[in-house]
Amino acid sequence: MAAKKDEIGTVMTPAPVALPGATTVMQAAILMREQNIGDVLVTDGERLLGVLTDRDIVVRCVAAGLDPSMTTLPNMCSHQLVTVEPQQKIDDVLTLMRERAIRRVPVVDDGVPVGIVSMGDLARLRDPKSALAAVSAAPPNR
Q: How far is residue 78's CA from residue 89's CA, in Å, rounded to a whole number?
């Protein structure tokens, strides 16, 4: 069934990068650099365990003096996840992100991650001339 234009499935980034929990923070950081992304989903099989962001790597691992080549993702990622389904209305997801003060939300279908949506994705859709939309659409810094 095709997504309707007011559903989050139409604006999510499909097929997000997902890594198994046994992956080290160093491996995740290298992949994030190679793929020009700021987050990865952490999984146990197909089940979503958490989200690891570039900020998590800096604050929870490096600044804490942990060895990124020995520290695995479940120890560093955010576990208190808010997820949405592809059929959820864009306005409802915007409200949820605003109320919970979250920047990105994994999109799951029957508990399996199928996408991720960020504030930047929604800014590009709803307010394409905004500073956030412009920054989100710009190529990553290298």
A: 24
The set of residues, in sequence order, having a beta carbon less than 8 Å from that of 5 and lying 6+ positions away, is none
* In a domain? residue 23: yes
The whole domain housing 65 covers 8-137
Write out the chain's pLDDT in tens, 142 residues. Answer: 555 889 999 999 998 999 999 999 999 999 999 999 999 999 999 889 999 999 999 999 999 999 999 999 999 998 888 999 999 999 999 999 999 999 899 999 988 999 999 988 888 777 656 555 445 555 555 5
Question: Which residues have CB under 8 Å from 34's CB, separation 6+?
Answer: none
Q: State which H helix or E strand residue 56 sits in.
A: helix 54-56
Residue 2 lies in a domain: no
Provide the domain count of the chain: 1
- The helix (run of H) or strand (run of E) holding residue 92 is helix 90-100
Count of residues making up the chain: 142
Tokens of 69: 């080549």
* Residue 111 within any structural domain of the chain: yes
- Token pair, residue 116, equals 């991720």
